[in-house]
């Protein structure tokens, strides 16, 4: 091996180690907050990132990657956009990922954050504000459900979990790339709510109205509390309407993501009436 070739090999090896090390570190929130990157695992998420125009910083591809049309499309995308790509063994990819079958693809992607000033709430069906949501799975499911009804995104208040945590990203099933994210203090959120004229709907077992009784008109913001405590009195006082979801069994509460899903699809239903040919007469 010539001296030049040996030098290039060392540089390539160093770059590969740096990419794999960074990917590994991004499992930790401290590293994500410091670098403003996050990690994705699996071909499906990679394709979704491509389709949504996410800023892919670098990719990791294993030797026996999937040979499907989607995989070939992903490889062409990497080449056409000149995205740095690190090739690793299947064993290496399995070691650094948490997905059962990443199909040979993983990547480092730049996070996208916006401010409350960037939001025009009337431009979307609704937005979701979450106070101190702790479960990555719940947050990821809310993101996915919000995307499915055409919500604009999620406003995170208090000590909420990171939307770019690996478990949240996986639970979102790719909707992480289609939704917008804002971090805010409650005080700034309250000021923005008044200035934007947003119709703030909170949920509580003590809500004055059944959630089906309320008219949801733009601009609507759905306000969900934490898993254990719900909305505190100070949060409830900011709401224009406080609604309850009726229950008939012995359970005294609903999972946060389930409650958010019920609310989001009621907002969707009211704004997207069923076609006349789907309605049946009694």
From TrEMBL:
Q: Name one GO cellular component term.
A: cytoplasm
Coiled-coil positions are none
According to the UniProt entry, its GO molecular function terms are: RNA binding; RNA methyltransferase activity
Q: Which family does it belong to?
A: Belongs to the class IV-like SAM-binding methyltransferase superfamily. RNA methyltransferase TrmH family.
Keyword Methyltransferase on this protein?
Answer: yes
What single Pfam family name could you report for this chain, choosing any that match? MRM3-like_sub_bind
Question: What high-level taxonomic lineage is stated for the organism?
Answer: Bacteria, Bacillati, Armatimonadota, Armatimonadia, Capsulimonadales
An example GO biological process term is: RNA processing
Per its UniProt record, what InterPro entries does this chain match?
A: Alpha/beta_knot_MTases (IPR029028), MRM3-like_sub_bind (IPR053888), Ribosomal_eL30-like_sf (IPR029064), rRNA_Methyltransferase (IPR051259), SpoU_MeTrfase (IPR001537), SpoU_subst-bd (IPR013123), tRNA_m1G_MTases_N (IPR029026)
The source's domain of life comes to Bacteria
Protein name, UniProt field = rRNA methyltransferase
Keywords (A to Z) from UniProt: Methyltransferase, Transferase
């Amino acid at each position: 091996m010539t001296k030049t070739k040996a030098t290039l090999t060392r540089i390539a090896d160093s770059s590969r180690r740096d990419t794999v090390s960074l990917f590994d570190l991004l499992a930790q929130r401290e590293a994500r907050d410091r670098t403003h990157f996050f990690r994705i695992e699996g071909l499906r998420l990679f394709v979704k990132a491509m389709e949504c125009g996410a800023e892919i910083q670098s990719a990791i591809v294993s030797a026996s990657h999937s040979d499907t049309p989607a995989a070939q499309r992903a490889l062409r995308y990497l080449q056409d956009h000149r995205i740095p790509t690190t090739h690793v063994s299947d064993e290496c990819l399995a070691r650094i990922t948490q997905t059962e079958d990443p199909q040979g693809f993983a990547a480092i992607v730049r996070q996208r954050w916006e401010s409350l000033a960037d939001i025009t709430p009337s431009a979307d069906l609704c937005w979701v504000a979450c106070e101190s949501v702790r479960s990555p799975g719940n947050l990821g499911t809310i993101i996915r459900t919000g995307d499915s009804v055409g919500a604009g995104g999620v406003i995170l208040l208090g000590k909420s979990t990171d939307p770019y945590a690996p478990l949240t990203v996986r639970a979102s099933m790719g909707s992480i790339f289609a939704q917008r994210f804002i971090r805010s203090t409650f005080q700034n959120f309250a000021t923005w709510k008044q200035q934007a004229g947003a119709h703030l709907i909170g949920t509580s077992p003590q809500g004055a109205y059944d959630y089906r009784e309320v008219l949801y008109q733009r601009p609507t913001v759905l306000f969900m509390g934490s898993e254990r405590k719900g909305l505190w009195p100070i949060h409830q006082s900011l709401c224009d309407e406080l609604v309850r979801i009726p229950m008939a069994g012995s359970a005294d509460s609903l999972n946060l993501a389930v409650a958010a899903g019920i609310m989001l699809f009621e907002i969707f239903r009211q704004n997207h009436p069923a076609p006349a040919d789907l309605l049946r007469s009694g």
